[in-house]
């Protein structure tokens, strides 16, 4: 039975009854029921087309025919767990190794970004024999208990901060403690980590790992200042810890000029562990941890087998290989650079016309537009951002969402086949909505000022 034969109201009622209500829907007041998708487009049950500006999971485009073909063929032939010798896992690991610095040459395949980060935590602790972790403020690293503990975005609303977790300021040069007028924000923010390490040592504790997204996304589409990560890595290493780059959102060429987000921090910067997920399988649950021979060796030395039933199975790895092929054959990194630059350029021009646009930032197809009620005070325009998202969906069938601690940053992380025309359409629509809101004096965030 095709599930979309249910009427939308029936699906909604069943969902309310059967699915845990903490699993929220996009546009919860009036959800969209998507029944098929292609490229950067989603289609509802009436075949109405929506432009997807947010799914960084369907990296090379929704339901890409090359991927579905490979997946079906491998599913028909064989799918086992990774305890049998098979070509796909090793060929895929080899292809991934070619995208990474030589040092990152041992791979563990898992099924989600959360599993990857949890394993990274285990690897770091086993290798360093230390317990404590430093994370960036507002970070999110996954939904497992261990990761809620290292995700200020979640633990602040739940059990609070564990004694082994230490929160460093988010290196946000628009809104953070050191801003764009600082002569060297990268160094200044790195020094906050150094101070934190000293504080941890004074408490008699030891750092196992520093975890950070290469471009903090939940934190508000943040671009780390130059030289931040190499400096932090230096401090973390001298404390005996390791640097974990969470590339779950940012890997696989999203930033265009580089395959990995961490490479924006310079050719000679190399994390000790890289975790990857979302875009890897183009929607198929596939994730991975890449690390060094030394760290992997320490993990092996505890003589406990690491077994993951689905991780690295032949179907997942065939899909992963097909995703890498499509990124190359369709020059999606080049597309990300060209379209991302055009999008940023158009949004920057829009900023000149609309006072509410406080900042436009991004690299490749990872772009954020921060809305503020007051450019001087940088007061978050949260309600305005929510209204823009709602109207884009209702009036233009464009799916955009918000991020950042105040949910006032419009985020763009579309499938990498996003086109110049798509970018132009989105910016025109945002312009129209903001112009209309200004003309009608819809100062939604008035009371927040
Ligand atoms: C940066 C980051 N790390 C880890 C995760 C967890 O990944 P998953 O939802 O696949 O478990 C997410 C998910 O949103 C994420 O954004």
UniProtKB/TrEMBL annotation:
One CC-aspect GO term: mitochondrion
Alphabetically ordered keywords of this record: Lyase, Pyridoxal phosphate
Family assignment from sequence similarity: Belongs to the class-III pyridoxal-phosphate-dependent aminotransferase family.
GO molecular function: lyase activity; pyridoxal phosphate binding; transaminase activity
Pfam families, per database record: Aminotran_3
Lineage: superkingdom: Eukaryota
Listed Gene3D superfamilies: Aspartate Aminotransferase, domain 1, Type I PLP-dependent aspartate aminotransferase-like (Major domain)
Organism: Anabas testudineus (Climbing perch)
Needed cofactors: pyridoxal 5'-phosphate
Classification via PANTHER family: 5-PHOSPHOHYDROXY-L-LYSINE PHOSPHO-LYASE, PTHR45688
Protein name: 5-phosphohydroxy-L-lysine phospho-lyase
Database matches in InterPro entries: Aminotrans_3 (IPR005814), Aminotrans_3_PPA_site (IPR049704), PyrdxlP-dep_Trfase (IPR015424), PyrdxlP-dep_Trfase_major (IPR015421), PyrdxlP-dep_Trfase_small (IPR015422)
């Amino acid at each position: 039975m095709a599930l979309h034969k249910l009427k939308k109201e029936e699906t909604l009622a069943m969902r309310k009854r059967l699915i845990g209500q903490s699993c929220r829907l996009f546009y919860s007041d009036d959800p969209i029921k998507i029944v098929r998708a292609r490229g950067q487009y989603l289609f509802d049950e009436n075949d109405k087309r929506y432009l997807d500006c947010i799914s960084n999971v369907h990296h090379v485009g929704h339901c890409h025919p090359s991927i579905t073909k490979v997946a079906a063929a491998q599913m028909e032939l064989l799918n086992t767990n990774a305890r049998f010798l098979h070509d796909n896992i090793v060929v895929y690991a080899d292809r991934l190794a070619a995208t990474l610095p030589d040092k990152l040459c041992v791979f563990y395949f898992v099924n989600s970004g959360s599993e990857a980060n949890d394993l990274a935590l285990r690897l770091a602790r086993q290798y360093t024999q230390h317990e404590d972790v430093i994370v960036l403020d507002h970070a999110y690293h996954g939904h497992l208990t261990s990761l809620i503990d290292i995700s200020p975005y979640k633990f602040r609303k739940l059990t609070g901060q564990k004694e082994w977790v230490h929160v460093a300021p988010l290196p946000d040069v628009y809104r953070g403690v050191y801003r764009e007028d600082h002569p060297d924000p990268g160094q200044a923010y790195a020094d906050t980590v150094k101070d934190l390490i000293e504080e941890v040592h004074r408490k008699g504790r030891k750092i196992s790992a520093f975890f950070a997204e290469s471009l903090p996304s939940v934190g508000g589409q943040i671009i780390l200042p130059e030289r931040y990560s190499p400096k932090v890595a230096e401090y973390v290493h001298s404390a005996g810890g390791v640097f974990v780059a969470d590339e779950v959102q940012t890997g696989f060429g999203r930033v265009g000029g580089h395959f990995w987000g961490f490479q924006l921090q310079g050719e000679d910067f190399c994390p000790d562990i890289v975790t990857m997920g979302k875009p890897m399988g183009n929607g198929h649950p596939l994730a991975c941890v890449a690390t060094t021979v030394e760290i992997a060796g320490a993990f092996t030395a505890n003589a406990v087998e690491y077994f993951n039933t689905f991780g690295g199975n032949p179907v997942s790895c065939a899909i992963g290989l097909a995703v890498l092929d499509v990124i190359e054959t369709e020059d999606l990194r080049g597309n990300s650079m060209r379209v991302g630059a055009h999008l940023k350029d158009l949004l920057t021009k829009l900023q000149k016309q609309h006072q509410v646009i406080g900042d436009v930032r991004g690299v490749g197809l990872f772009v954020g537009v921060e809305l503020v009620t007051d450019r001087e005070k940088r007061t978050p325009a949260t309600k305005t951002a929510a209204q823009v998202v709602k109207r884009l969906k209702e009036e233009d069938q464009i799916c955009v969402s918000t991020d950042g601690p105040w949910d006032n940053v419009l985020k763009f992380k579309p499938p990498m086949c996003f086109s110049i025309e798509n970018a132009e359409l989105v910016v025109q629509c945002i312009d129209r909505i903001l112009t209309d809101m200004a003309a009608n004096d819809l100062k939604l965030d008035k009371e927040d000022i």
